Amino acid sequence: MIIPKYSKKEIAHLQEAVHEKILGSWSCNADLDKEVKIFTAGEGCWLYDIHGRKILDTFSSLITTAVGHGRIEIGEAMLVQMKSLEFFPIYHDGFTVPQIKLAEKLAEIAPGDLEVTCFVNSGSEANEFAIKMARQYFWQTGQPNRTKVIARRGSYHGTTIGTTAVTGFATLRTVSTPVPGCLFAPQVKCSQCEFGLKYPSCKLCCLKGLEKLIQSEGPDTIAAIIMDPLPGSDSGYPLAPKEYIQGVRRLCDKYGILLIFDEVQTGFGKTGYWFACEYYGVVPDFLVASKAITSGYQPLGAVITKKRIADVFKQGPGSEFRSGSTYGGHTLACVAALKNLEIFEREHLVEHARDLGKYITKRFKELKKYSIVDTISGLGTLWAIELKSDKPIGIRIHDCCGEIPESARRCAECAGSIGAWIRNWCWENGMILRNNGNMLVIAPALVMTYEKFDMVMDFLHQGIQAAMKHFKIK
Ligand SMILES: Cc1ncc(COP(=O)(O)O)c(C=O)c1O
Questions:
Q1: Within 6 Å (CB) of ligand 1, which residues are found?
Q2: Using CA atoms, how far apart are residues 365 and 192, in angstroms rounded to an integer?
Q3: Which atom of ligand 1 is nearest to the CA of 163?
Q4: Contact at 8 Å (CB) between 251 and 333?
Q5: 53 plus 100 within the same structural domain
Q6: What is the pTM of this model?
């Protein structure tokens, strides 16, 4: 690994250039004002910043780098491909060999009869395509009125206008154009049940709510239900009862609705299964994947569907699926994905994630002794620790959050929250910890070892203790 060196002058220039020349993604102005973080090198679960500091990454670079940083063999595979042909688009009637091989590989690892892939560039685009495919499917099979999409409160599906419209955080939708026909069912987070009930005595009120929504809207107006079988880092990885997800599948079958599972975050081993839907024993009609499909070495998204659905778009002239993007399924991205999945299998990373998940479950129980630790939820390597305190802890809603409390949760800063304080403490001491207000997120690369996870635990113990001391919490 090469760790590039920069002088103080160069660092100052680069940091200034961030302020002047980049409009960041999901930026927090308060944090940017405090420190612009620039990363220069990485190996496994470690990152190096521009000052040469070595930092443990517990958020796997936005939940992408499943095989860890610095896998030269992925770059070498791309170089080999470049020596013959760097790129030809999936366009009209043209393909390249890596695109075909990756589609075959995905058909092999995807559950059930999911076997036909449409390639795009990102998770948002893949969700958008799944929704478009569902709508066109009904348009072409004699049910053109089936256009509505049901999503859930508290689930994130992407950043395009279409996927923002089905994202269940109202504050994210305020500045985008409303899209008609997007409906929201209850969030399924048993620790904060929308109906104030407890599982199992609730008798799955949330599932009944979903069915009521379908019935009141008219089942023959609904094209698809989109959901993340394990809602992501924004939602605290609430693990739904298996019978809820199985019940959703049954409702889709009963009312002829197509089921989209957004596995952008949960796909590729992170839950201890290739895909989270396997934990529930449910096969969706569209499985949406991205992020760890290439472990972040290239951008790529995929919608994997069933032959009976794809066949509707292969019935001669005029039936084709009317979408596509120039770089969707870029040849080099497919090579990166193939090599990435080869590493997964060679190093048994899915099995390791399942075992590590058991270890994490056990070790996280230790955190329950702290009065500020509330719910801990997750599966495999995807975890959230929610903090509570009945003491005022000086939460100051920052300018970028406005006055709306819910939007405060959206801002990584929320300066003054215990979560932000612990995140900052961890950063200063050498660990990247993602926080979402008072929710701490731990979602390491699948290559994290037990020893490294012990280091994460040391950070968490020390960070929580330091925060309790700082905020004078017993
Ligand atoms: C569950 C889920 N869906 C969709 C997306 C959007 O993916 P992308 O950022 O690649 O567009 C994300 C990104 O974090 C996600 O976590």
A1: 122-124, 127, 156-159, 228, 232, 262, 264-265, 290
A2: 20
A3: 4
A4: no
A5: no
A6: 0.94
